[in-house]
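User: We ran a pulldown and think these components assemble together. Before we commit to crystallization trials, I'd like a predicted model of the whole complex to look at. Sequences follow.
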Amino acid sequence: MMPDLGRYAMEVSLAYVASLGLLAVLVLWVWLRGRAVRRALDEFEKDRRGHG
Amino acid sequence: MASFWEYANPLKFMRTTDWLLPVVAMAALVVTAIGLIWGFFLTPDDFRQGATVKIVFLHVPAAMMAINAWAMMLVASLFWLIRRHHVSALAAKAAAPVGLVMTLIGLITGAVWGQPMWGTWWAWDPRLTSFLILFLFYLGYIALWAAIEDPDTGADLTAVLCLVGTVFAVLSRYAALFWNQGLHQGASLSVAPGTRMDWAYKAPLYVSMTGFGLIFVALVLAGTRTEIRARRMKALVARERMA
Amino acid sequence: MSALLIRDLRLALRAGGGFGLGLAFFLILAVLVPLGVGPEPDTLSRIAPGILWVGALLACLLSLDRIFALDFEDGSLDLLATAPLPLEAVVSIKALAHWITTGLPLVLLSPVLGLLLFLPAEAYLWLILSLMLGTPALSVIGAFGAALTVGLKRGGLLLSLLVLPLYIPTLIFGAEVVSRGAQGLSVATPLALLAGITAGAVALLPFASALVLRINLR
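Assistant: Here's a predicted model for the assembly, 513 residues in total across the polymer chains.
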């Protein structure tokens, strides 16, 4: 059910792929960094509690 | 709803965003998907621009958020400088990469659109030039945050840079306008005679603008939560070292 | 105040102070550009205003990190911050010293380099005038950037990333004055705007620079 993009098919799909790709990279970066920081902090706090 | 100033307390902010972030993130996903699917599959081709008109549903929202992100950083920086609103400073930091990517999307979609319409990927048009300059300002702001160890010093310095940078970014905008009159059409949604946009395009455009706005809010909330945790971690490590 | 100015000038002028480095850079740039784009007088005279302005900008950038770095390292900046002289004045004087040792020599050297680049005869006056009006803004904006990065170990590269975007309006109006002058057009508008930017920067930016320095000295 792709719409007929005519002679500009390349340009339009390129714009959508590039933009969505960039957004995906950004979301992934925010998510992975958030997870890494959260884990590091949890670990640290658990450690502190463990050793008094 | 608690007052805005109570959210200067990181704990309060964390507790609220615990449930708010998933809600905003879901809304962002749904609204953006509706806007883009509507725009991509269900809009007619423009009689002059053909299918390239579909790029507008990415280009305009991204460009709008690129500027709004900077404006939000400016306001957040002011809150930090005047009221020492800690969460606000961290939110400004979290907004910068999002604004950077939005600027990049605006530039790339613009280039891809300009190629068939103007016959060139890039033109030194005032609007395009200003966006490139905005991109440089984002880079500088992010680089300064990354270079400074102490979170409060970093917040102070970047906040001042944001204020001064805003003045110079606006000056650059007018300087570029003076320097070269451009190819770019006026604001797509303005009601200039002859360039008025049809509702068949306007409706999905508004939806996707809302979607991009929600994406921005969701990413800033998530980023701010990360920065709060990173700041806490730094403080704990420092305290450990002191003991 | 004048004692501080004289001290700063002496520090910059003594061996190893970096005086002349910017000038040499400016000269090298004016030699490299024709080697890169070819010797045709037509091409060179058309791009000369832009090259000279970009060259002045970059030459100015070279010595910016010295404005505060030495005083920060040996602690005299802490003394200056607690001295009765307001820090805003200290910043302004240091920017002035930077202008006298960098901006002013660039202005004086620029006509010679204009010769190398076949700058049209009508443009010389505007070149000197625009640089004279614009380089103080470059020093003041640069002092702000230097104040931001003073505490950082490898601040030099970051400094250029922060300062160069702030130079854009000055560059646009300055180069516009020269290229309009070269074409015999009226230069009143860009000249007025250039002067406006310099006046605004000189009047307001020292406050931001002093604020930033106080944060860095905390």
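Chain B has six helices and no strands. That may be worth checking against your pulldown data before setting up trials.

User: Thanks, that helps.
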